């Protein structure tokens, strides 16, 4: 029986993870749950799944009696003291970094859906994973696909990896119309049902930018080996091209249960009926992303070229700007506009340790808020 601590249990990754666990009650058991602010749902999940270890990070109290731990520090302690074998990090945004580090330092395997962990602290995370001899298992559908495509393959034989992208809510919108888009427009994703932040990031392709950075960090790849293609059907999750010029792809119907299950059960494989795909009559199309339209993708490559301090900055300023867009303080096109200003500034701190990383993150958030005014 594999024991699981599920972080971000009330979100979309959390729900899909619970679905997977419910499919395999003889193999999997949840022993801990966390949520940010939805204490009602967290409490309900605790009773439904018979889990006593419940942590609410975004509040310091709750009316629900089965929730007794609050705040980030108590979550980190709960992770360290848990008897879980693996932690699923489905927390959204930079708040997921410290729980990832706590997981690794306590010797538990990490199923990572929180891409910001690698974007902010990839070199540190890889170092800690080696030192503590844990498995770092990607849960993003694209990175899960690459992980399995690269298994038992020499990395020097890989010429490039190709991450696919749906194109987000504005895939078919002419570029000149972007200045008119609203928050409601940005929240209409063509393929996935996700939280507001990641859906807006998909519309700007900041999400794919974060995934490019994550791939570089996870798989130790040079920036020129990571490509992106728009694939509206979302059947091909990623591809690799090897040195004989042949290509390999992971293809399935889109369902986050597949990468989650593959991470939890690794190295075993079990059927995920919802991802079965009959290719007969299906059309698969691929186009290059328009980097003038999707400036946030282009800026992610710039951040990677400039180094880890700038990948931290890319994530920090984007989080601030998306919040501002949600609060109708800036327009959609001001997200890449202000991000470019931040990335062209001089960041003098070197991210040599966790304190440096958090210092850069704090500094960039402050600078971005000042820019917005």
Tell me about this structure.
The mean pLDDT is 96. α5 (116-132) runs parallel beside α9 (206-219), α11 (295-306) runs parallel beside α13 (334-343) and α12 packs across α14. The protein has a domain at 2-138: Rossmann fold (3-Layer(aba) Sandwich). It is globular and about 50 Å long. A hairpin with a 4-residue loop joins β10 and β11. It contains 14 helices and eleven strands. The chain has helices spanning 12-23, 39-49, 72-81, 97-105, 116-132, 141-150, 183-186, 196-204, 206-219, 257-265, 295-306, 308-326, 334-343, 354-372; strands at residues 2-7, 28-35, 54-56, 69-70, 86-89, 109-112, 136-138, 158-165, 226-230, 236-242, 247-251. It has a seven-stranded parallel β-sheet with strand order 4-3-2-1-5-6-7, sandwiched between helices. Keywords: Isomerase, Isoprene biosynthesis, Magnesium, Manganese, Metal-binding, NADP, Oxidoreductase. GO terms for molecular function: 1-deoxy-D-xylulose-5-phosphate reductoisomerase activity; isomerase activity; manganese ion binding; NADPH binding. Its cofactor is Mg(2+); Mn(2+).
Produce the secondary structure layout.
Layout: E1 2-7, H1 12-23, E2 28-35, H2 39-49, E3 54-56, E4 69-70, H3 72-81, E5 86-89, H4 97-105, E6 109-112, H5 116-132, E7 136-138, H6 141-150, E8 158-165, H7 183-186, H8 196-204, H9 206-219, E9 226-230, E10 236-242, E11 247-251, H10 257-265, H11 295-306, H12 308-326, H13 334-343, H14 354-372
Parallel strand pairs: 1-2, 1-5, 2-3, 3-4, 5-6, 6-7, 8-9
Antiparallel strand pairs: 8-10, 10-11
Helix pairs in contact: 3-4, 4-5, 5-9, 5-12, 9-11, 11-12, 11-13, 12-13, 12-14
Pfam family, one: DXP_reductoisom
Domain DXP reductoisomerase C-terminal: 252-366
Domain 1-deoxy-D-xylulose 5-phosphate reductoisomerase N-terminal: 4-122
